Amino acid sequence: MFYRPEVGHGLPHNPFNAVVSPRPIGWISTRGSDGSENLAPYSFFNAVAYVPPQVMFASTSAKPDRGDTKDSVANIRDTGVFCVNIVAHDMKDAMNRTSGAWDKTVDEFDDAGIERVACETIACSRVLGTPAALECKLTQIVQLPGEANFTVFGEVTGVHLRDDCLKDGVFDVLSYNPLARMGYKDYTVVRDIFSLSRPGE
């Protein structure tokens, strides 16, 4: 099968996000200039550089009460900071609850019964008990082609690692089984790993 996106695929559901999978989930916590807090998951998320460490996430829709974007991007525009919380498998239901298109007055920490704790390097909350959290300062927001498509880049200014996830000096993802997004309504979980050496190593 071959199709051009501008013409259409003719399938019952768009296959694009199923093709690009699995995708890690960035559970983004932000604080607005008015002090309100927001927590929302994004599967267009990844690390993009080592030195200095940098990450990105993309927001691809808008809410009527936020104009051209969603709460996360609007808050980051205001404050210049955000935190990426890593989602363990046992947090899937709480994460999913925070994916709703709630009114900007809704605090997803409270709504989903998630405990919060203050970040160390930025004025923002993070998810208490998450396997890892990356405190970030905004470097740039890039508007992409298409309505409401924004990519947010941030430099990591602080890293939290849960102590029980460190095994012999290695951050052990199998200790918490990271959640990842597939296509459609589907998710997967990492329960298996293997290692490969690059040529010459």
CATH superfamily: Electron Transport, Fmn-binding Protein, Chain A
Could you say what the CATH topology is called?
A: Pnp Oxidase, Chain A
CATH architecture: Roll
N-end to C-end Cα span: 39 Å
User: Could you tell me the radius of gyration in angstroms?
Assistant: 18 Å
Task: Supply the number of structural domains.
Answer: 1
Strands side by side in the biggest sheet: 3-2-6-9-10-5-4
Element-by-element helix/strand order: HEEEEEHEHHEEEEEEEE
Strand content: 35-45%
Number of helix segments?
4
Structure description:
- The protein is mainly beta and 201 residues long.
- The protein has one domain: Roll (Pnp Oxidase, Chain A).
- The chain has 4 helices and 14 strands.
- It has helices at 16-19, 71-79, 92-97, 108-111; strands at residues 23-24, 26-31, 37-42, 45-49, 54-59, 81-86, 116-118, 125-127, 132-143, 150-161, 166-167, 170-171, 179-181, 187-189.
- The strands form 4 sheets. The protein has a 7-stranded antiparallel β-sheet, with helices on one face. A 3-stranded antiparallel β-sheet has the order 1-13-14, with no helix packed on it. Strands 7-8 form a two-stranded antiparallel ribbon.
- A hairpin with a 2-residue loop joins strand 11 (166-167) and strand 12.
- The radius of gyration is 18 Å and the shape is globular.
- The mean pLDDT is 97.
